[in-house]
Amino acid sequence: MVAGVSTIKTECVTQEKSNKTCTNPKKFTKAPIEHPTFTLSQIKKSIPPHCFNRSAFRSFSYVLQDLLICSILLYIAVAWIPTIPSPFHYAAWILYWAAQGSVLAGIWILGHECGHQAFSDYFMLNDLVGILLHTILLVPYFSMKYSHSRHHSNTSSLDRDEVFVPKQKFDLPLYSKYIYNNPLGRLLSITIQLALGWTLYMILNVSGRQYSCFACHYDPYSPIFLDRERAHVLISDVFMVVAAFVLYYLASSFGFWWLVRVYTVPLLVENGCIVLMSYLHHTHPALPHYDSTEWDWMRGMLSTVDRDYGFFNKVFHHAPDTHVVHHLFPAIPHYHAIEATKAIKTILGDYYWSDGTPILQALWREVKECVYVEQNDCTDGDKTRGVYWYSNKF
Description:
Blueprint (H helix, E strand, L loop, with lengths): L13 E2 L4 E2 L18 H7 L9 H25 L7 H28 L7 H14 L4 H13 L22 H5 L2 H22 L25 H25 L1 H27 L6 E2 L6 H5 L4 E2 L4 H4 L7 H6 L5 H15 L5 E2 L3 H11 L2 E3 L12 E5 L3
Helix pairs in contact: 1-13, 2-3, 3-4, 3-9, 7-9, 7-14, 8-9
């Protein structure tokens, strides 16, 4: 196979170390699950040293660029779109929502970089910029920073990962087979996930790790957080309250529907972009998940996939097409991530995974193929213990 590219195959995958051949044909060549022979230090040495340099000046240039574009788009929405005759103004609003939501997603990614200390060499500056950028998007910065850091520490672990944790078949709701076995059900699932997935994750921890009690990103005493993190979570909540008052003032001054048109709908588009990217980075028929008996950090980090969003790779600051290197070295700023990704491919070989399938086609395929995870049945009645693959058979 070509290293890192998912290819369609119908033959069974042979686990060379165990000399067992699976009886169920799989469409996709599987990513390797053997412990890699390379180390994190070797991967790091393959990356040019300057890729680890962070420049506050350069990072701020991207913030100012995105805020400027947002301001121009807002001016167009307020000053120009209302002058467009009906029914053409409807198309103009749709274009505005798509453009503004995409740029807001880029701002979200810059705030996310602050949480990884990839924005600059100064921790306090990173957190200050991060909380301001994320508050604009109604994201509790510190809450997201802490839960997301544990996602990076436990990627692809069925027991400890924090987001997009797949279910096993016996954990699925009874209605799942009616949703995922027909196109209308899958379309409904995609729509709900993109429209409400981010909000449901923040408030109810939907698609997140299972805790023994209620988990919420706005609750400082949620089991998501450690005791030393609760004060910072409360600070994020205070910023959320301030943001709510600002939005209330804008709605009172300009009207509720004005606020919906210029801010709320683009925010929903931005949320959908983030959910789409996160889902497709960690959901692919070729990538394994591991339970606690088999999981280790390196293989978990390598169970992610780079995607190609075309023009939007640049709009999203190359978060879609450099996600593998981001998981290995999250402090690398986005403007060095392309170069770092090219460098690590020679070391990772087949452990590097990317998929150039058009995004909407990939989303439809993943929703259809990746319903739950299970261990592979093999010819001697044993299983590949601790390693789970996506399936959709009911």
